[in-house]
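Model: You mentioned two targets. I'll fold them one after the other.
Researcher: Yes, keep them separate.
Model: Target one:
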Amino acid sequence: PYYVSINQDLFLEASLHSSDPLLQLFLHTCVASPTRHNSMAGVYTIVKDGCVKDPTYAAFYSPHRHTLRFKFKAFQFIRSNPVVYLQCELVVCRAFDYSSRCYQGCVKRSKREASS
C-alpha cells in the first residue's frame, strides 16, 4: 500500500522494461475502485480510451518513450473504507508508427443506435 492524504497529488510512473528502444507506452484506461476485484461497478474513471476524465489529471514529460509519468489528486470513496485501488491499462506501440493506437490519442467512441 501507498499512503497519501485526501487531495494530495499522487504521482505515478509506468515503465516498460525492454531492450528495444523503439517501443513506447500509451495510457489507455485508468480507473479507481473501492475494491480490489476487477469489477467496473462503482469505479471512478481517470482516463478512458486515452481521454482524460479527471480534471486533476496531468501528464508529465519523460525523456524516455518507454516511460509514462502522470498525477492526479488522491480521493476517498464516500461511505467506504479508506482504501482506493488503481487499475490502469497501457498499450505498447512501435515508436514512429503513426497508425498505431499510441498516436491516435483520445478516441471518443460514438454510441450505437439500438435497432428494433
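Model: Target two:
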Amino acid sequence: CGFRKNRGGRPAGRAAPPPGRLSQRRPRLPAAGMAAEDEAELSLLECRVCFEPYGPGGERRPRNLPCGHVLCRGCVGALSGPERRRVECPFCRRACGSAETSDCLPLLQLLEVLGPAADSVPSALGRSGGGEAAGPGPAGLGLRLSLGGWGSLVNPTGVAACQRSGRLVVAHDGKKRIHVFGPSGTCLQRFGERGDAGNDIKYPLDVTVTSDGHVVVTDGGDRAVKAFDFDGRGVLAVREGFCLPWGLDATPQGDVILSDSEAGALYRLTADFKNGKLKKCQMIRSQLTSPRGLAVSQTLGAVAVIEHLKAQGPNSSSTRVKIFSAEMDLVGQMDSFGLNLVSPSKIYTTAVAFDKEGRVIVTDVSSQAVICLGKPEEFPIFNPLISHRLSYPVGLTYTANNSLVVLDSGDHSIKIYSST
C-alpha cells in the first residue's frame, strides 16, 4: 500500500533522516523575544528529513522534487543511493530521477532576503489569512481565497469543511497537526500535538468533521482514529485492530465511513462523540485494493473510494474510483485505463468529493487538475474544472455554500473556488 513500517518502527510514509546524519541535528533555539508560534514557523527553513537549516549553496541548498516537496541537496543525494539515479519522496512516495530535481527558488529568495535577520521570518512569509487571487478558472470557477502556505501548513494531507460553521480543518505535518481556519481565512485554532500520548497525533492522513461538530482524524502513525472537539480536546481514540486507517468522511447521520488501506476494507464507525463512547465499528466492504481517498455524498449517502492498484512494471501504477450506494452496493467504477480513453493524459487520482448534484469530483496529480467525472450512471465523463495554478492537489471538499476547496500539498496551501 506504500505505507509500511521499516525495521526501525517508523512508518515509511514518514520521513526519516538518512543513515549517519541523525547525530548532526542541533537543538533549535528561538530568537530573543520570538513567540513560540513564530519559532515553530522557522521550521520551514529546515529540511524536513535531516532538520538541518537550508543554505544558499552546498549540501544545504533546497531542492524541489517533481511532487512539490522540498529537501536539501544532501538528503536528495542520500535518498537516491550510490548510483544517484532514483529518488523516492519520503512524504508522498512519488519516485523521480535525480536529474528531475530543481532549486527551490522561493526558499532561496527568502534566504537571500532574510540574511541573518531570522526574526523577520513570520512577517516575510505573510501569515495565513490569505489574499484574494485574481482570475477565473475553467468552467466558471474562480479562485476566491488562498490560505496557508510556507510555515503555516507543512505537507498537508487532508481537508474538511464544517457545514454548520463554515470552518475549514486541515491535517498536516506541523507541530500541531490540526489547523482550523474561519470562513474569512483567519486561523482560529491549532491542536493535536505531535507525540506519543494517547490523544497526540503521530502521522495524520485524513480528517473530517461530523454533523455534531467533532473533528475526526486518521492517524497512520499508531493506526488509530481520533476525535476532538473544536477546542482541541481529545474525546475518543478508536483502535479496533485497524491495519492502516487512511481516508474518512462523515455521513449526514453523523457516522464516519473509513478506509483501511492495508486491510482493503471500508468500516462504518458509530459513536457518541460528545460523551466519548464508541457504539459500533462495522466492516461494510472488503476485498478492495489499497483504498485511500474517500467521500460520502451528503444528499444521497453514496460512498466514493479511490483504490491504488498495484504496479505491473516501472511507473505503471494506477488508480480506480469506485462508487457504492448508501447500502454499499457497487453502482459504478472507472480506472485509469478507462479514463485514458476520454482524457488526453494518464490520470492518477488522489482525492474525491461529491458536489451538491451528486457528481463525482476528483483530483489528478498527473495533470495537476481537478476533474468532474459526472454522476456514476454517466461514467465516463471528462470535464476539467480547474487546470491551472495547482501544484500537487491531494484533498477536496465542498463548503455549505458550494465552494470547492482544494488542498494543494505542493505549495502547502488551501485554495477555495467559487462560481463566477
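Researcher: Noted. Anything on target two?
Model: The chain has five helices and 29 strands.
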